[in-house]
Amino acid sequence: MLGQPVFAGHARHASSTGTTEPPLPRVYLFTKTDCQLCDEAKEALEPIMHKFVLEEVDITLPENERWNELYRYDIPVFHVYEEFVCKHHVDLLAFERALEKYKNGVFR
Q1: Which of 41, 56, 82, 92 could bridge across to 7 with cysteines, CB 3.0–4.6 Å?
Q2: What is the tally of structural domains in the chain?
């Protein structure tokens, strides 16, 4: 089942060394069932998948009507939390910039 975006709660967690570190950022993929372009986009992200948690949001579900209205003709669409990153294809440079912003505390 595909998850829903929840753009709150950027909590920190304690590492094994006792320091407080941010969790891996959440990347939301707005998608739908049988989306070939979405599958290709996920493959393109493989080299950097260790840097984030990917959550898929099925825009065709009734509870995701808002996202369907916004993105029905644009999937795949990616956000890091609430920040738009790219659509139609993966832009690795845009991902690196968004993930760096998260790492530097911009999203907290």
Answers
A1: 82
A2: 1
